[in-house]
Specification:
Blueprint: E1 2-8, E2 13-15, H1 25-35, E3 39-43, H2 44-49, E4 59-63, E5 74-77, H3 80-86, E6 93-97, H4 99-105, E7 111-117, E8 126-127, E9 136-144, E10 154-161
């Protein structure tokens, strides 16, 4: 199964200057819990934004058309479809960004794990594609208030593709 995992702002913002727009420890914990032990697929810019390189305890896959880009501890593919096909026997594969990889993955994805940050971010320069509500069924909706460690109200949402 191909899944997408993403945190988005109210206007589908996902980043600015190749960085996240917020720090929500519970979202990071959820990301780690869901993706550990699985294949994660990302674009080159997303990989370059990771502070310590390849994420531990996951098979890191980077999509790049630059044959000279060879990050440590990662498998490389020149396109998303080849990467998906290579791992088709895995129980769940996660696409973790960025915007162009998300756009390509939406047609193949069967599940979306979305953290909706209930705030707008004016400095955003990267956005998640529109989620067509006619194609998806929301199966989880878990609200979380602001607190001393989470400066924004946020919601964990999970969607499955309609058959």
């Amino acid at each position: 199964m191909l899944s997408i995992i993403v945190a988005i702002g109210e206007n589908s913002e996902i980043g600015a200057d190749n960085n996240l727009l917020w720090h929500l420890p519970n979202d990071l914990r959820r990301f780690k819990e869901l993706t550990t032990g699985h294949v994660i697929i990302m674009g080159r810019k997303t990989f370059e934004s990771l502070p310590k390189g390849a994420l531990p305890n996951r098979t890191n896959v980077v999509i790049s058309q630059n044959p000279d880009f060879k990050p440590d501890n990662c498998l490389m593919f020149s396109n998303l479809e080849d990467a998906i096909k290579h791992f088709e026997n895995e129980s769940e594969i996660f696409v973790i960004g960025g915007a162009s990889i998300y756009q390509q993955a939406l047609k193949f994805a069967e599940k979306l794990y979305v953290t909706k940050v209930r705030q707008t971010f004016e400095k955003a320069d990267t956005f998640f594609p529109e989620i067509n509500e006619n194609e998806w069924i929301k199966i989880e909706n878990e609200d979380h208030p602001k607190d001393d460690r989470h400066p924004y109200f946020y919601t964990f949402e999970t969607f499955i593709k309609k058959k």
